[in-house]
Amino acid sequence: MSSNSIWNKVKAMLGNRCPRCHRGKFWEHGNPYVNLFFRGGRMNEVCDKCGFKYEMESGFWYGGMYVSYAINVAILIGGALFTELFFEDLGVWEEAGLISGVMILLIPITFYFSRLVWINFFVKYDPSKWENVPNNSGANQT
Predict the structure, then answer these.
(1) What are all long-range contacts of 102-110, with beta carbons under 8 Å and residues at least 24 apart?
(2) From CA 97, how far away is CA 116, in angstroms rounded?
(3) b/e burial code for range 26-61 (CB count within 10 A of at least 16 → b)
(4) SS3 breakdown of the chain: % helix, strand, coil, rounded to 5?
(5) Which has the higher per-residue pLDDT, 100 or 126?
(6) Model-level pTM?
(7) Rounded to whole angstroms, how far apart are CA atoms 140 and 119?
(8) Cβ–Cβ < 8 Å for 87, 95
(9) For the residues of 66-77, what is the DSSP string, one character each?
(10) Which CA distances in Å does 90 have to 46, 74, 77, 79, 81?
(11) Tell me, what's the pLDDT at 14?
(12) pLDDT tens digits, 47-78
């Protein structure tokens, strides 16, 4: 996989885009907090641009929990290093409370991106899928 294709995948994930065509929206709303708290964490069932079905099989999203776990471990380690370097006066319990609070505040973001990362492991970008779908004109590209 070339660095250009990896960069395209990263841009698609950050932009809430379909992993196959990079045009349609994956989540109903682009803001993780709005999407989780006001829309019930709903994601689109299929891509409105290429017709790709996001839940490829029953239980597919269980793997997203592993991605979420990895993201939270990275936040934990980064938070521990940050507090050790910049808040030397904090005790262990204060550090743990601060890091836990940040992790709780970031739950919508980790949930949002864990599914995007998970599905992008399995779905290859295919620009021809966008071009071959009827009723897709350049006027409604987002």
Answers:
(1) 102/75, 103/72, 103/75, 103/76, 103/79, 106/75, 107/36, 108/32, 108/33, 108/35, 108/36, 108/37, 109/32, 110/68, 110/71, 110/72, 110/75
(2) 29
(3) bbebeebeebbeeeeeebbeebbbbebebeeeeeeb
(4) 55, 5, 40
(5) 100
(6) 0.79
(7) 25
(8) yes
(9) HHHHHHHHHHHH
(10) 48, 21, 16, 13, 13
(11) 93
(12) 998 999 998 888 899 999 999 999 999 999 99
Measured CA angle at 39 (ends 35, 43), to 5 deg: 65
Q: What is the mean pLDDT of residues 5-19?
A: 90
**Residue 120 three-state SS:** helix
Phi, psi (deg, nearest 5) at residue 57: -155, 160
| The token pair that represents 136 in the structure block | 């897709």
pLDDT-based confidence at residue 112 (cuts at 50, 70, 90): very high
